[in-house]
Each structure stands twice: as structure tokens, then as C-alpha cells.
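During the second year of the project, the team shifted from modelling isolated chains to modelling whole assemblies. The rationale, set out in the original proposal, was that interfaces cannot be judged from single-chain predictions alone. As a representative example for this report, we include one of the complexes processed in the last quarter. Its constituent sequences, exactly as entered into the pipeline, are reproduced here:
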Amino acid sequence: MASTTTRLRGLVWVVPALALLGIFVYYPIVENIRLSFYSWNAFSPNPVFVGLQNYTDAAADPIFWRSLRNNIAYAVVSLICQVGFSLCLAAVLEEFVHQKLRGVLRVIYFIPAVISITVSGILFSFIYNPQFGLLNRLLGAMGLERFQHAWLGEQKTAIWSIIGMSQWQSIGYTAVLFVVAIQRIPRELYEAAKVDGAGAVRSFFSVTIPMVREMTTLLIILTVSGAFLVFNEVMVMTAGGPSDSSQVLGTWLYRNAFLADNMGYASAIATVIFVLTFAFAILQILVSRRRRVEI
Amino acid sequence: MTAVTSTSASTPIAANRATRGPGWIRRAIAQLFVGLILVLLVLAVIYPLLWMVFSSFKNNSELFANPWSLPGELRWGNFERAWNAGVVRFFVNSTLVTAASIVTTTLISAWAAYGLVRVNVPFSGPITGLLLGGLMVAPTVALIPLFGLLQRLHVYDSVWALLILYTAFRIPFTTFLIRAYLIDMPREMDEAAYVDGATRTQIFWRLVLPVCRPILVSAALLQALFAWNEFAFALVFISNTENKTLPVGLMDMQSRLLTEWPVQFAGLTMAALPMIILFLIGQRQFLRGLTEGMGK
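Output from the structure prediction step:
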């Protein structure tokens, strides 16, 4: 009996963390799924059960699909830049750059990642500004006036401009993670490749890429799930406009919940985001578990 | 050798190899090419930030006439104006929430991590799963129910709401970080203290926390980065301007200052600087936290 109470006293260690998580993380998730089957808003005290109505509404909502497409565009560009380009950048830093300079470059490339998205979002909305923005001036200086745009004000360019800002912010971050992964590759593998007559390009493909596979997989999953959670930069730079052309799932949720007071529908969008990102998270666990078994 | 030349014959490096020019020429051309790209990238990263700083010293006519140039004079008045237009309030709020959430998050997480790794906590397997499982939950998904919940708890529209959420949503990551560190620590150390009659609580405060200092510093820095920059919760759960933190406050200022661009630039500079400085001072700890957090 005494031993049971002492054992239960051990719970003291985890109760604060569990309580906070239970109330503010897990309960809202479950509650959100429940609420997505109701029609309700902030002013109606009695939510009406509507079954899958909110989900069929989403399926019929062109802006829902446009948001999803924008999220996918985000994912594709981010994969190319934050996984593909960052890996090349990391490899180049390790292969060509002198050690001292390498440290400095790494720090510089990383700086955008520590700036708040609001700051970089507003800053880039100034860079994209048609009156004094750097981008149009740069294009003008190069004689490319026909490519000048009101970047955030035009339906065709808004989402791409936001995506561009996001790459500026994140490439250095993933590159640094790749650098760490590359540094863990045993040097002998590169020596062996050199002996076999492989140049820098060749050993990048035959040594570096296979040896950082785990980090690549992990970053692919994180990048894609991050792309489905995008919210801040869109909110700051366009709030989804013009004419909802740059909506993503997160901002469409926000708009429906807190501006249009269409809470039930917004909960359904949140559930869609949850299912998507949860699936990626499970994938990530499976990948890292397999990795642990291999080691 | 033939395979190598045929696969990459289009690059200048390979072309050189095909003509069997001296090694150093090939190397030099490659270095030059790579160097050029790296420098361009440095410019692309740094220039927007320099532009932000330069522009915060200009006036509107200077900004429009010559956006590229250095400011004609250092107009500190822009910073003063931004500071008084609200930045001071947002700054204080951000600092409070960030500092407080560093303390709560690291303490609660270290407490839980130590319990799970060293103390015989019942159901420790499932509990660990629950705590780390929080990593899979995205804040956006919880926004709507939290809105009602925080109102019922009477913390809506106060910095308390942010403190609670910034703690709760960061416990999984921070616990994960500290737990990984504790697992690698030799058990003998705290067992010896235990045998000497110290209680678990004493061991936690006097032995474990000091020994974990390196990872606690990393955890604190990453928490600072998160709390200082967090946007979604701050946007939805704070409505009174007085209670806003920097990220949302800056947006607020944007709509109030309208065309006073240089003043806005000054506000951005002031908001970005603390984290840049913190990163430059603690880069090693930052990077350790990040790479450990990615899983070894």
C-alpha cells in the first residue's frame, strides 16, 4: 500500500506539464473536431448539429480549393529551395570555403531565420512596394521594366511574392542543418571517392546525398507540413487578398472564424489542416524510428 | 574517368577536365564561380536588412528619390517617434511574455523530463508519449476552441493568455530536448546523492539544473526566439492595443502610421535587433538546441 502511494507521488513530476498540455493543447484539438460537425457562431449559444455539412461546404467552396492549391505551391517551392538548394549550398560551403570564412557565412545565412515573420513580412511588403520598393527599382535599373509589378497588389503575383519572402527567410536555416549533417559524414568516404577519381560534383552525388538522406527526409516532411500551416506571412503581407487570391488554409480559417463569424465552417478547415499535418507527423515518427533501428 | 566527363560535360569545371588543363586552373574557375554565388547570396540576405536600417534614418523624400543610398543624416527622431507611437509598449509586453515563458517552460519541462528519466513515475511510457505527442499539434488547429476557453478562464485579451499558451505549446519540444540530454547523463551522479539522503526535489534543484545548464541555455534561447516572434496567438487572443506584443503591434502601427515609412522602418529595426544580437552572442547554443531538437 505504502509503495503504491509513493509510486503515485511520482506523478507530481509530470502533473504540471500534463495539465497544461491536456487543457490547452489536447482538449482544443478534440473540441475542434467536435465543433466541426456543428453550425455555430460567436453569438448563437446553441450550436446546431449539421453532420458533415461543413465539410461538404468546403468541398464546394472554390476559395477553399484555391487556398489548398496555394499551400501546395508553397510546399513545392519550399522543397526546391529549402531542401534542394539548401543542400547544394551546404555542400558548397563545406567543400570550397575556408573554415574561418565558412563560420561567418553560416551565421550570415542564418540571420533571417531569427527575425520575426512580422518584421520580414512588413519589410518585404516595402521591398515589393511599387513606389519606392527595391525590387521594381532593381528591375528598372536592369532595363526590365516590363517585369515590374505591384507585387502584392496583383492577383497573379501576390502568393508568389509571399512565397519568395519565405524562402529568403528559411534557406539559411535548413542549409545550416544540412551543414551539421554533412559534418557527421566520415571524412574517409570523401578520401575514398577522391582516390577513385571522383571530382567535387561526383562525390556530392555519390557520397554527400546518400549520407545525408535522413536529414533530407526529415526536412522534406517538416517543410511540407510547414507549408500547410503557413499563416503569419500571408496575414501580414496580404491577409489573403487581393480578391482572396493569396488565401491559404490558415488565413481562410482565420477569416471565417474571426471576421465572418462562420465558426463551424472554420472548425472544419482546422480539422482538415490537423489531419494533413498529423499525417506528416506520423510519417516523421516512422522515419526516425526506422533510423534508430538502423543505427 | 570517362564516366565523369560525360555526365557533367556542360559545366566549365568538366570542360577543363576534358582538356586536361592543369588542376589549379580548374580549381580556380570553380572557386571563382562558387565564390560569386556565395557573395550574391550574402548580398541577397544582408542587403534587405541593411536597407531596413538605412531607411529608418531617412525621410520620405530621400526614401523615394534614392532608395539605394545611405541616409543623408542620422535622423534618430524616427526611432523616437516609433518608440512613442507604441513600440515601447509592445516592447515591454514582448519582453515580459518572453522572459516569463522562458522560466515557466524550461522549469516545467526540466521537472517533467527529470521525473520521466530518473524517478520511478507510474505509466511513464504512455505519459512520455502524451508529452512528446504535443509536438504533432499545430497551434493554428487549436485557435477556435482556445478562443472560447480563454474567455471562460477570463484571461482573454491579457498577456496571461500568451504566457499560458507559449508555455503549454512549447513544453513538448523543451521536454524532448532536456530529456535527450538527461538520458545521456551518467546515472551514478544523482544516484550517489540519493543514497546520501538527498530528496529527489533537492537533487533536482541543486544537482540536475546546474548540470543541465548547457541544454537549458539552448532551450531558453529557442523559447526566446519563439515567444518574441510568435504571431497567430497574439493576433487572435489580444485585442486591446495596450496588451499587444511586438509582432502584432507592428502590424497595428502599420495601419496607424500609414505613409510615415521611415518611422515604420525604425520600428522594424528595433523589433528585429534583440533577436539578432541574442543569436550572434549565443549562436553555439542556438545551433545545439536546433540540431538536438531535430533528433540525433
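The radius of gyration of chain A is 24 Å. Chain A touches chain B through 85 residues (CB under 8 Å).
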